[in-house]
Amino acid sequence: MLGFRDYNMNKNIRNVFLVLFAAVLVLGCVQQSQTQQPQAQPNETHAPQTRQFSMVISHTFYNPSVLTVNKGDTVVIKAVAAPGTASHLHGITIDEFDVNEAVTSEDPNNPVVIQFVADKEGTFTIYCQTCWSGPFGQGHPPIKAFLEVKP
N or C: which end of the chain has fewer CB within 10 A? Predict the structure, then answer.
């Protein structure tokens, strides 16, 4: 049978556990609210900026293979053909933005500069239509990259 002293000791232990439990709950809520990122508002707009990319076009790939911008940004691509491939007539084609430019420079100090405004949202394929006019014609390996235009 528990005596008065044992009862108070058990009551004190219970109270300590309750206080600790409450503290853990409060700290957990505070920490969770601090780590949550604010949600972007659906109508939030970004001020248009100029986004510049240096791109190398190889016989089988673009580097980088993904360009990400915001709607309304001016996109500037400074493109060069990989060493030894300028005669292949590699290029950059993005149908939705009326871009179709051959890249015959291999000199990083003298790139072909392609500029346009990304006025449509979505993911758009970058491919090489000008390669078809080069020595490999329609047999040129397909090369693709992507332009992601965020709202």
Answer: N
